[in-house]
Amino acid sequence: MSNDIDLSRVPRHVAVVMDGNGRWAQKRGLKRTEGHAAGEEALFDTVKGALDVGLSWLTVYAFSTENWRRPLDEVRFLMHFNESLLLRRRDELNDLGVRVRFIGRRSGRVPKRVLRHISDTEALTAKNRKLTLTFAFNYGGRAEIVDAVKSIAEEVKQGRIDPSRVSERTISRHLYAPDMPDPDVLVRTSGEFRTSNYLLWQAAYSELVFTDVLWPDFRRADLFSAITEFQNRNRRFGGIGNPD
Ligand code: IPE
Ligand code: IPE
Ligand code: MG
């Protein structure tokens, strides 16, 4: 519970792969899409928990560049569901002091109307500072690196970047959200042990936390246990760390 968390050492950024919606639904004899719908409560409870413990950045994987491979009906549902979630709940998020942002490709097959609601929501909540809730939507870590490389190449061509001076910082500055700190913790639900192209560059030193909980069952208590687990890890970043 939140009592176990050392509030003076809350991570800055927790990233979550919200996985297991389909299996949650199938276990109940429901359609997979009903699992996605049930994920909304999990998300909002997690957001409220994040606000309670003073987390500044929460990033959630909502739709990957690979999720286009799913049946058209499910893809359509996910596009519409994410849009309607924004429209129904952005005022509430705004009142809670949440800044909503999106990372991912804002092109390709995402309907124009959805893109418009995304930028409207970002504008509405832009001044909020309690928590930045970032949706990774039409997001792929490799696509993000490709897009960064393209824009760096463009600046090289224009003479604004000297190729011999390209550094890790150059790449970080060309990602979708250059001001976003790297995630301290990366949580994946549903008992899968992979990151599925999530925050490939940013998660280089994230502490990985895997849980069997299916996303629709995830609640703030699960966020708190991930944070507690993180606080018990010894991060070394290649050094020798803090000997206990
Ligand atoms: C995660 O749940 C949501 C998205 C990928 C959009 P899944 O739909 O992947 O659920 P499972 O993994 O099939 O159970
Ligand atoms: C990752 O889950 C993407 C999201 C949660 C949006 P997937 O269910 O798509 O990942 P894989 O296919 O199991 O790797
Ligand atoms: Mg899945």
Automatic annotation (TrEMBL):
What are the required cofactors? Answer: Mg(2+)
Coiled-coil stretches: none
Keyword list (alphabetical) reads: Transferase
Q: GO molecular function, one example?
A: magnesium ion binding
Q: Matching InterPro entries, A to Z?
A: UPP_synth-like, UPP_synth-like_CS, UPP_synth-like_sf
According to its UniProt entry, one GO biological process term is: polyprenol biosynthetic process
- Give the CC-aspect GO terms: cytosol; plasma membrane
Q: Which CDD domains match?
A: Cis_IPPS (cd00475)
Put simply, this protein is called Unannotated protein
Organism lineage string: unclassified sequences, metagenomes, ecological metagenomes
